[in-house]
Amino acid sequence: xxRKQLAPHIHANQPASERxxxxxxxxxxxxxGAVFYFGIRVLILAAVxxxxxxxxxxxxxxxxxxxxxxxxxxxxxxxxxxxxLLMPASASIWVVAIAAVFGSLLVKQSxxxxxxxxxxxxxxxxxxxxxxxxxQMDARPMPLTDMWNLSSLLTGKCAADAGAVHVDxxxxxxxxxxxxxxxxxxxxxxxxxxxxxxxxxKLFRFEAPLTYLMAILIGYVPLYWNQIHPDQFVIWVASSxxxxxxxxxxxxxxxxxxxxxxRFLFGGGAGFLTILLSRFANDTYxxxxxxxxxxxxxxxxxxxxxxxxxxxxxxxKEVEK
Length: 321
Prior knowledge:
The protein has 321 residues and is mainly α. It is built from 14 helices and no strands.
């Protein structure tokens, strides 16, 4: 007998716990690459984030929704791991813990728990950190340096102390992910491997990622007309987190539209906002906030863009009559 699930997971042939377990498996290669390049700190931060997310979900669900039996669906572990992979490895433990509590209590459980949250919990927690602790979040540590140094684990490193992006980058470094940046976003090969795992498990929906990347590519030409450089564009996509977001964040069935037409619009809008913020703001804002902004309009897409019922026109017009 299958366990009753909340929307949108109720339409799936597999339980929500199984879906989230496969997403977690898809991110494991990215975690391995992050630990290889940025050291044991990434593993410690991931353990802290996942534990805080899980226990906050557990105790808050017990308190807020005692009528619903809590069961492990792995969504808290997925959110905790996503959060750390979107952060620099030089961040402190207590900052990670604060972000996990924020994402669990205010972004997820306050809206009703798994399947009912408007915003992606990991991305919203990362946006909170970018606003509250910009000095730590703007750091871009160099790979393969200070891999075993845990002296700043409690205090973290600010952007001035944690390294900076070097200009001369080879093609092999771009492919392998040996780039300064956030812990889990630089290795394109491992991110694509995670996408293949999602695709094989039928959890990858191409509409939003495709239009997202196409909008970024098309918008790059007019906005950077005087400084178009293909190499810099590739380095930017590889090191900013765009690929990571397109594979994992844009395939979240809770915070993206249910209909394929809505997902096309979602991805195109997110890509357009990404290239605008990248041109006139900074790369970190350009990766995080466009997805959250499109999360806000997802309920509108779901309301107006639905499969038409047989022999009827638009369903909302029928209701308004």
